[in-house]
Amino acid sequence: MESIVYKPIGYVKSPYTNREDMPRFYTDSGEITAKLELQPEYKDALLGVEPGMKLLILFHFHKGSRHSLQVKKRGTGPITGVFATRSPSRPNLIGASVIEVVRVDGTTIEFLGVDVLDGTPVLDLKLQKE
Prior knowledge:
This protein is an all-beta fold and 130 residues long. It has a single domain (10-127), classed as Elongation Factor Tu (Ef-tu), domain 3 (Beta Barrel), CATH 2.40.30. Helix content is 0%, strand content 36%. The strands form 2 sheets. It has a 6-stranded antiparallel β-barrel.
C-alpha cells in the first residue's frame, strides 16, 4: 500500500484549546471567530477569496486517534461507525468544516464557523457551493 503525505497549507488560531469547550459542529459556533494563517507560499491562492464567501476547510485532527472504528454518536448516543459521525477518531484523521470568511489580510483569513482546536493543521480549502 502506498503512503500518502500531505503538507499543511497553514494552521488555525482558535479560541479553543480542548475538545470539551469546542462546539461539536461548525453551525453551533455562533459569532466566535478564528483565524487561518496560511504559509506564505500560498498567498496567491487567496486571489478571489472575499468576505461572506463560504469555504470547505479540510484539516488534520492533530489531537485525534485512530483507535476506534465505532464511537458513541455525539459522545452520548448509540454506538455508531465513525463514517456516520464527525468524530475525530478516524482511520485517516481528516476533518472537514464549512467556514464563512469575515476578512482576508495578507495570508490570514478571519472566519466564522469555528469547530477546530488551536493549532489545527489545514490541508486544503475549497469553495463551498450553496
